[in-house]
Amino acid sequence: MARNSGFTFKQFHIEHDRCAMKVGTDGILLGAWAPVGQARRVLDIGTGSGLIALMLAQRTADECHIDAVELDINAASQARENAAASPWAARVTVIESAIQAYQAAPYDLIVSNPPYFLAGQSFSDPARALARHTGALDSHQLLAACDRLLSLNGQVALVLPTAMADEILCISANYDLHGICYTAVITREGKEANRVLLLLGRGLNRCDRGEIVIHSAGGAYTDRYIHLTSPFYLKM
Asked: What was the pLDDT predicted at 4?
């Protein structure tokens, strides 16, 4: 349900007119899928509108605090407003910073819907280019930040294009981060996966592989997608 320029969920509303990247399926999937467990400190890298941070606030205990880091000044300002208007204003802190310079105590869970277009691809909107070009945050920088900010038993949850997920898995071993769960995202039954929900943890792990299909061949939402996202969508 839209209101003004934003999107209303069951427990919160997101305004995103000042954000380059709007509310979309990638962020909603990650916010609904990321395993929160008993996390007490959560970091959202590149929060944009604050969507994923607020979804995780809805899913976690009152003792859990979520820090949301955003480089773009306009997006950070809007994310701060969205958090302040939510039921979890005291639990979500938005920080305007490049993650490469960000310092904090270790986190139990780090999530990110990172940039994934290579430098050289063009956008008419400079803010959208910044939000999606890996020149601002490449895979090595992202994993170095995760390694530096993750607790010993912490986990990293990402949503990525399939090719980038394979690249991340190759690079992450250099930081002793290894695959725990690899979930292929298929937009419609019968198509190839174009996104991956990837969970990383320290030390060698058995990596569980599976898939999420969003739409059946007939176009309806699948039972699994409904189960995953129904706590958030108004009409799900």
From this structure: 57
